[in-house]
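MODEL INPUT / OUTPUT PAIR
PAIR INDEX: 1
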Amino acid sequence: MKIEQIYTGCLAQGAYYIESEGEVAIVDPLREVEPYIEKAKKENAKIKYVFETHFHADFVSGHIDLSQKTGAPIIYGPNAVTGFDAHVAKDNEEFKLGKVTIKVLHTPGHTMESTCFLLIDENGKEKALFSGDTLFIGDVGRPDLAQKSDLTMEDLAGYLFDSLRNKIMTLPDDVVVYPAHGAGSACGKNMSKETTDLLGNQKRINYALRADMTKEEFIKEVTDGLTKPPQYFPQNVMMNKQGYDSIDMVMERGAQALSPIAFEAAANETGAVVLDTRNPQDFAKGFVPNSINIGLNGQFAPWVGALIPDLKQEILLITEEGKEEETVIRLARVGYDHTLGYLKGGFEAWKESGAEVDNIESISAEELATRMKSEEDINVLDVRKPGEYTAEHIEDVNNFPLDYINDKMSELDREKTYTIHCAGGYRSMIASSILKARGFDVVDVAGGYGAIKKSELFKTTDYVCPSTLK
């Protein structure tokens, strides 16, 4: 028997490859499915099942493509209703995989179809739990993503409490927990950086598994402090539930190399978002006017999902050479299937063509300190998350979280210049590029709050001022 966690850091997502006697099950596959197929082929094994723990909100699963390419059925737990062929299993139903057994444990709470899959070895011993978004390492799944008119967040939290107590905490302490996500995912509040653990240890350290916790206490703690989920989550759920274009079609469409002339024409004719995925400081030095910078080397897909609200939005790409295909794949992972092509030769080709170029002024922390002392009307925006801002920030500087920039932009004054920082420079360039494209005058602080703190030139405070912009 073999269990392999295939972890994708940019999504904080864990898929699983389980093999016994030449038969394979894949749990919660990513959108690009060829790696699973190739791995099984290399092992002289056959993919027998595709297990889905629930309708994912934060990424588009590869379940449909993988099933179509291998003939393996898609298995969901109770309450799942799909727009494609799938086997909706009963609670406690068992599936044979070589010499091992995979048992369905219906665990509603994160969503009503949420299900864990328990692996039982050839000797009948319960070995591993593929817990989806029901149980994370150090946390549990948020209960606010599947609310309906007749089902509140508190209702779902109550279901989750029962699922954890009746289905999971009764399992042996030496069962290994394999969750769908780790730290960085928006599907929980405070997940550990660890991506697996023994259930017994989670019973000791996970706040949501305290033996003496009442249901009322659980509901209060699990629902407290939840931030608004990203806008793309409901759209990803619908794609996972109803179906989507094959990844092969998406890749073929997005892999069109466009000359600078063709690229400019496509941008003008389609209204596509021009997305530049280069390093933030490279972008600042020169970019195609009105393009948005979301660097591929950061939390790329989640930020695209948070800031481009319509999954059907057409996109034109500017990437580092050799990163075109990777970018199209990473967009498709969160449901952005309408990439129209990329700029052949990258930004250098655009510049060499003589086309118009824009830039963003980027200053050091030391220069920011000088300007704050010498200029009466300097408007600094801290685009970190509220929790980061609360922990520590520059005195008298407003919090303007990047997550909500599209909703709060009307609070800004187009007659003013805004100097923007985040923690390290990644998010501030995203914010700067968005505001620049909307006609605002912006300055970026290179190195962000890390450089600001290191300079020791600023008064900082952990007191949270009202976030009304001046």
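PAIR INDEX: 2
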Amino acid sequence: MNIEMRKTAQGTEYWDTEAKKIRFVPAGKKPGFEVTKEPKSMLSEKKEMQEDNKTEVDLDSMNADQLKDFAKQNDIEVPGNMKKEETIRAHILETLTAADE
């Protein structure tokens, strides 16, 4: 399953959930693989709900940059000294849990 992650001036990045890597497609080119528009089937045991659009997100499959992007999209401030995926993930989970209370 390939999911669009972000678009830049150079092209589009897709997350390949099977190979666990990012696939890059240059701007103006079409991907040579199938792209999943709504990845509802990529759920794991640890699921988090985004408050704004109620979609499920698998934080465990994200790398540090993806976690930072997720935090930015959800108005969660990640301190600059947090570099490790585990630390960022824990901070996001703590912030989301505190917001639910």
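PAIR 2 NOTE: The chain is about 25% helix and 20% strand.
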